[in-house]
Amino acid sequence: MRVPIAHQLPREEVRRRLHSRSHEISNFIPGGMAQVDTAWPDEDTMTLAVKAMGQGITGRVLIEEHQVVFEVDLPAALSFVEPMVAGAIREKGQKLLEKK
Questions:
Q1: Mean pLDDT taken over the chain
Q2: What is each CA distance from 56 to 31, 45, 51, in whole angstroms?
Q3: Matching Pfam families, A to Z (predicted)?
Q4: Rounded to whole angstroms, how far apart are CA atoms 82 and 37?
Q5: Model-level pTM?
Q6: Measured between alpha carbons, how far is 22 from 45 in angstroms, rounded to an integer?
Q7: In what order do the strands lie in the sheet with 35-42?
């Protein structure tokens, strides 16, 4: 699943905001029991490993010139929640980009 979020920020500012706020991602997952691990294999890619409710999901956040793309590897068994997950990513992903 790919969820693009448009932005008007310089890439450096997007990187800074995602670096400084990535620890907040677990707060965006309902239930309060999620574990989220992030890594930066390169300056424009953040990888995610999310564990919640016995499920593990991986993904990436790709920083592009005018958008940030959240790519989530949603298991087939959870494909029925894809619209809900995409909506949450749009809303919460935008919050990660907001100035704090």
A1: 89
A2: 15, 20, 4
A3: PHA_gran_rgn (PF09650)
A4: 21
A5: 0.87
A6: 12
A7: 2-6, 67-73, 55-63, 45-52, 35-42
For residue range 46-87, list pLDDT tens digits in order: 999 988 777 788 999 999 999 999 999 988 887 888 888 888
Instruction: Give the number of C-alpha atoms closer than 13 A to the C-alpha of residue 98, restricted to the C-beta side.
Output: 8
Secondary structure tally for the chain: helices H, strands E: 2, 5
Q: Say which residue the tokens 């990513």 belong to.
A: 89
Q: Which of 93, 40, 31 is nearest to 67 (CA)?
A: 93
C-alpha torsion 95→88→64→55, nearest 10: 120
Domain ranges of the chain: 2-97
Residue 66 DSSP SS3: coil
Architecture of domain 2-97: 2-Layer Sandwich (3.30)
